[in-house]
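re the bet — no i am not wrong, look at it urself. input seq straight from the record:
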Amino acid sequence: MTLNSIKVEDSSCNATEGESATSSSMQSSGVHKVCLPPYRTTFQKLRQRLSEIFFPDDPLHKFKKQTGLRKFVLGLQFFFPVFEWGPLYSFKLLRSDIISGLTIASLAIPQGISYAKLANLPPIIGLYSSFVPPLIYSILGSSRHLAVGPVSIASLVMGTMLSQAVSYSQEPILYLQLAFTATLFAGLLQASLGFFRLGFIIDFLSKATLLGFMAGAAVIVSLQQLKGLLGISHFTNQMQIVPVLSSVFTHKDEWSWQTIVMGVSFLIFLLATRQISTRKPKLFWISAAAPLVSVILSTIIVFLLKSKTIQTIGHLPKGINPPSLNMLHFSGPHIALAIKIGIITGVLSLTEGIAVGRTFAAMQNYQVDGNKEMIAIGLMNMAGSCASCFVTTGSFSRSAVNYNAGAKTVVSNIIMAATVLITLLFLMPLFHYTPNLILAAIIITAVIGLIDYQAAFRLWKVDKLDFVACLSSFFGVLFISVPLGLAIAVGVSVFKILLHVTRPNTNVLGYIPGTQSFQSLSRYSTAVRVPSFLIIAVEAPFYFANSTYLQERTLRWIREEEERIEVKRETAIKCVILDMTAVTAIDTSGIDTICELRRILEKRSLKLVLANPVGNVMEKLHNSHALEAFGLDGLYLTVSEAVADISSSWKPEA
């Protein structure tokens, strides 16, 4: 077998006079020198690292080489995107936005009332939350298709956690105070994450765990709506599946056949319209208009029947949002609860809003700045907490309708807010006879889309650990509680990260004939072992968390290879090569481990060689003087060069 080294020219590798002869001889023998990265001061390294962490997208690149006036204009557009698209706005865009705005308003009004009920808040709060926040977002938001308002998951979490500590029926003022305060803290968290560019924190909620969490929450929400669909007056406040089902069958004497017939009928109607729009996206308006049509029809039916067995919303006050700044609660025994609810609902709503915004941005080939979106959503909730609103974000169902209706800009949110304003000022008495059953049917129809069994099946096929994480959060929500289910979801995500960090992959490599490529023996059947060599690839950073494991696993690879050689009576191992191509970082523990491994192998008459360490790894190995013990033939640019050079040095001994 002949291995020819790849010639590499590296102008950044500057040899000193003393090193030039050695370097020349190495070049002539087909072995290239492994270079150190260009020298940088500690401050330069820190600056670059912080820039990569907090500014990976280089948001200020537009400001470079611009005049003062231009920088001022760009600054306005950066913080207020309305100044970017506003001057280009046209009547044609307005026509599209009016149509989409009226369409999502027909969905937002019944959903707003329903989600307020889900949070155990007065229904009018849901309409308030569909008025002020969309106006704020239209000025600060960068997504053209995000439709803002209350969402099911955040409403569920807020209602669950608040109801466990305070009863709205007994202490309505305190309940509202805590809801508005929690909304303020949610907004503060969201805006802070965006301002300090810490959005990567929400990435600890992986898609797999969120999939299970939302599916579990959807099941719980749907079961909770049996109270409205069956006409039950006394129902449990607990959110676990067992107490909910127990409460349903314990109060069978409260079931109302009129409520059941009407509720199930409208639920079937809503699900049918949803299915039609799913199969034929051009008919999106059918599912969008269905909730409002259902509200109107059910209200007329109840008004005509005058039935006392069917529970209704009752009186809703007319008028725009009353200020709630005086209701923010910053003292007392419940302040910790408000902060806790704010953090949880803030993270959940932020995750949903960013994901929805990026989804539709990708479909229309434009970019959404995640950190700017966090600031926009955060300020929107902070303003909302002072205007009788609870936590809001971008809703997937409303945003999908907005997109399909042809929305061009965030003006569709303004149209929706204007429609809600007209409703608040003039149409509130019409909701007096709206039955609770229709709100339950609307909620079930909305949340049932969160149960994505096909995505769960894909997880099983692709990544079993992700599937376990999904199931853990799903059953955690169902049988323990929504907050603890979320905690389980985060815990499983962090455990998965730790598992990958502390137990990284290692592979034994073989030579693929006819190439200079070395690949995993277990992956490529054509790969063959190189006699007298054991080549091990490490596929992770070399950190304190995995250094002991990597040392033990390397020694195990050596033992297993020696046992295989003994059985097959092949040539004994003389050299172990560590392919460090995928080792992106190393710390002092990793360096000490490599040095210790070299000493252990040296006592066993085995040579340890390092191949292709990346720039910062090479720099740390050099600064620690760890390379001095390896000598000139202990470090190579590629595995092929290492094999060729070391093999040639053994030939005279043969």
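see?? The beta strands are 148-149, 393-394, 506-511, 518-520, 533-538, 575-579, 607-611, 635-636. told u. also The mean pLDDT is 86. so pay up
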